[in-house]
Amino acid sequence: MMKLAGYSLAVSFAPISSNVVKSNGRFTLGISHRNTCSYRLFSTHAQKQQLQEKPGVVARYYLPPWFSVAPMMDWTDHHYRTLVRLISKHAWLYTEMLAAETIVHQKDNLDRFLAYSPDQHPIVLQIGGSNIENLAKATELANVYCYDEINLNCGCPSPKVAGHGCFGVSLMLNPKFVAEAMSAIAASTNVPVSVKCRIGVDDHDSYNELCDFIYQVSSLSPTKHFIIHSRKALLNGISPAENRSIPPLKYEYFYGLLRDFPDLRFTINGGISRVDEVRCCH
After folding, report:
1. Which residue ranges run through the membrane (predicted)?
2. Catalytic residue among 156, 197, 211, 280
3. Contacts of 263 (CB under 8 A, 6+ apart)
4. Is-catalytic flag, 156?
């Protein structure tokens, strides 16, 4: 594949659904990386050594993601990521969404939730929550595990997550809060941060509203990378699984963001399930 002007293309395959990702000016075919951690499954000691070499693990050891495996609840656990890494040495891997409160309340048992084998690098930790103090504490506690990026979930439509206005996609309705949360997360780590979101929520689904969300979060926080699931979320009447297929895809929103925010990086997610469909995105 060749590098395209303005953005690059990445794909992730999952057992149930696949996700194609694009990002502004990012290319990672032929990644080579070096792990400074010795291979010790569920060990934090060696990963503490790697932390001492930061900041800059991403810049020093990996090229930015061209090919990624998206975060998927009940799928992208440690075992699935191990399998994916055997299939691809270059894909960026995402964890399942982990609630910040879980990390904070389980701080004496963090290996159960955060540890992974070092060969899973490059790997992104996705966290969720609506309490800024806990988001910051969770990020700080996760530092010892040497994740290569921290991602905030602003896209999950599950009633358990978003249906009561807690977090997930409901956060898109409060971009100033997301900016404050991302500032706290970024201040608690020395790796890049990013936001995963939808293109809208319920009736708040205009392109202008999406632009307002992106503008406020990017201008009021250090966030420069957004993963865009190109469907809106419907919080009532359909299941989380149906939210991955029923709301129509609007890829034109994503391409509009590329045009209107040339200084930011964007990753497109949703709806592309075959390699030939990936090629069509060129």
Report:
1. none
2. 156
3. 224
4. yes
